[in-house]
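Q: Could you fold this chain for me?
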Amino acid sequence: MMQKVRVVGAGLAGSEAAIYLAQKGYQVDLIEMRPKYTTGAHTTVYPAELVCSNSLGSLDLLSASGLLKEEAITLGSTLFKIAKKCSVPSGNSLSIDRFGFCEEVKKIIDSYENINQINEKYEKIDSNIPTIIATGPLSASELANNVKEEFGKENFHFFDAIAPIVEKDSIDFNKAFWASRWDKGSADFINCPMNKDEYEKFYKILTTAQRAPLHDFEAGYFEGCMPIEVMASRGIDTLRFGPMKPVGLFDKRIPTEFKKNQFYAVVQLRQDDKLANLYNLVGFQTNLKWGEQKRLIQSIPGLENASIVRYGVMHANTFINSPEILKKTLQTKKYENIFFAGQLTGVEGYCESISTGLFAAINLDRYIQNKSLIELDNQTMLGALIDYITYQGHKKLQPINSNWGIIKEVEGDKKKLKKDKNLKNQLRSNRALEEIVKIKRLIED
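A: Sure. Below is the predicted structure, expressed as structure tokens.
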């Protein structure tokens, strides 16, 4: 008989984990409460749904996100392979057709006879069955309360925000133009430029607009997904140095001699579906009331007649106190056969969720096989993420994306490395991938 394992949550982390364990020959119970119970943020019945942006970040190995992807692909990730298959043009980033992606993930899950899909709530941890809990930041309240009971620690809470999406055909390209920043890669972004007066009008609408009421949780925003109205409250120029920065964006229809400091602010839109019909407003996560969102969006030059197919929303997110609950193997300290993965652990982002789902599955397999579990050094990006979320020295753990600031420094001429960031990142990337290749060999032995 097949060894039975359980994966709770069919988001990015859970889907990656379930597929890996099915490939290893386990009987996998994949428990997902949707569509029987909704979350308030998901809109489809599919696994691995992307509820915020459709971008998985840079592919460049000199970027933290690019390195993390390559590490996970080397270790055997299925979802990153699917993501590349479902990619849409976005320069040197991996942006995907979100619906095509989750449909493809479902096809693969459905193809495994040893994955038993169960659409119910998982309300109580059962330590009799080896389990990965990857219910994400929108976990059912019953499970969240059980986690508190089991581990004796209160979850932290914060709010996450989703950006609006508009139809490309409703954009006025007499005002908008195609470009990527500093002309790197292909011109895959739609750019809506503003002069000073247009920006100030936009800013006034934004800062006086009514917000939708928040329920259940006290707002504690995560910096990596900050609502645009909260950013705007920090000062009139905050957006011009953030998601609306005009630097490096040039409309080639304007004569060359006027290219320097062409615009006062720019709103960028990124392709959101395979057919390139839908575009999301980059960095425009928001909790404004829908009528206010429409007024704000249609004040942007080029979007005066924009057809809005999805408005921005905010939803409550939860994550566990990982330093107290988890080992660096992603096992819980209380139960050796219970693992956590994904955003519930305190990592933030799509790539981070996929990667920790894979890592938890690798270690669950090794646990069942009575092999030594793997702890990654923080010279790898995945290892640095896990090291960060399990670090005992945090006064208060906050969600973390992959970034160079958490990875171990490289040896060498400090002055030269400080001056040449590309060289520094190249050395760190090379070192990380060498380590990951060693780990892959260990797993395959």
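A (continued): The first strand starts at residue 4 and ends at 8.
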